[in-house]
Amino acid sequence: MTTAPLRPTRHRPAAPRADPHRWPDVAAPPGASWPVRAVTASVLGRALRRLPLRVRLADGATLGRGGPLVDVHDPKAFYARVGGRGLIGFGESYMAGEWDAPDLVGALTVLASHAADLVPAPLQRLRGVWAVRQPARQRNTPEGARDNISRHYDLSNDLFSLFLDETLTYSSAVFRGFPADRSLLAAAQHRKIDRLLDLADVREGTELLEIGTGWGELALRAAARGARVTSLTLSREQRELALRRAADAGLADRVRVDLCDYREARGTYDAVVSVEMVEAVGAEFWPDYFRTLDARLAPGGRAALQAITMPHDRMLAARDTHTWIQKYVFPGGLIPSTRAIEETVRDHTRLTVTARDAFGAHYAETLRLWRERFTERADDVAALGFDETFRRLWTFYLAYSEAGFRSGYLDVQQYLLTKEAPTP
């Protein structure tokens, strides 16, 4: 008597048990029907078979042409989540431990490289029907923006200090070469800041407005040049630490940090600097943001911006869609395209885009260093009270972002905007 060979079974790692009160949509997959799961499996199967990935299902079956490994431990839950919530479900499935990848960045880079054609064209045209819509509560009205910013930046100063360098700079650095060494990250952040301050011509006596304080490193560096800095933030935790750092540096008389929405700013300034702030504004309010730059900048002044960007067609496709990153990391945010920025400046301000410089590869390296440090400090993150679901969320967020830059799906720009002085 002979028996058919059985597929080898693999031991599935214990999945994190998500707190149903803290993580209701992670704790249990949506109740997708068998037809929904079957259609999702069919659509994903066709897409994955042509990608340079190796997707291994729980029964040992594989999909893909070979490449970074993705282990799907619970296909039923995975297909239910993706079928019910699309890319939000894909991220939630990782948070729930239903799939893993030894090289998470590598796997996500493949997917990001094929983002435009993963979903079949007929389904893309029906995106308005099946995609989750932006929740009205996350609109970046003055009140909504305070809530949105607080949800991310007021998590814990101690959390951010675990994986950022000593400058506490939470934006792309500029390196001298790759691969970047972690010991050089602080110097690379100063290089980025100095480039922005040079673009804005910040020097002794400059009256500088900063929109988006972070933890204050740019304001401190500008004040050390002799500028007088007014910096705006909506994060109470960031403001408190930035003020303390200014006092410790002996620069409290040159650095003012206001808990203030950019729309509430008053006065005029010789220069304005804003680093990776426009992504948190939301498309609806981009005209307000750039009009504020115009209104606050004195004639003859210079504004230096650093902005993450994405291709214009992908931005339009995502503009009204609620994404995983918006649900769990940056509520209300939307990454603009270079075209959207330049058209908004042209149509709503008296400013001129004078220069633009892209350096996306530097952001990929910055994120790699943050991600590696976050992973190394997992026990310290847990000691701060952040559970395993949160740690998987942030691991996915950092890897997902790094993959976006490595694939070229995302880029980062430094802009110089100028405002002509009136003719005498």
CATH topology of the largest domain: Rossmann fold
The CATH class assignment of the largest domain is: Alpha Beta
Assembly classification = single chain
Order of SSEs: HHEEEHEHHHHHHEHEHEEHEHHHEHHHE
Strand tally is 11
| Structural class determined from secondary elements | alpha/beta
Between the first and last Cα atoms, what is the distance in angstroms?
102 Å
Biggest sheet layout: 7 strands, mixed
Helix content: 40-55%
Rg over CA atoms: 23 Å
Short précis:
The protein contains 18 helices and 11 strands. With 424 residues, the protein is α/β, with parallel strands linked by helices.
Explained architecture:
The protein is of the alpha/beta class. The protein has two domains: 24-132, no CATH class; 137-418, Vaccinia Virus protein VP39 (Rossmann fold, 3-Layer(aba) Sandwich). 45% of the residues lie in helices and 15% in strands. The chain is built from 18 helices and eleven strands. The protein has helices at residues 24-27, 34-49, 75-95, 104-113, 121-125, 127-130, 142-153, 157-163, 185-199, 217-224, 236-248, 286-296, 312-318, 324-328, 338-348, 360-376, 378-383, 388-407, and strands at residues 54-56, 62-63, 69-72, 99-100, 207-211, 228-233, 255-259, 269-275, 297-309, 352-358, 411-418. The longest helix has 21 residues, at 75-95. The protein starts with 23 loop residues before the first helix and ends in a 6-residue tail after the last strand. Mean pLDDT is 92; it is low at 1-9.
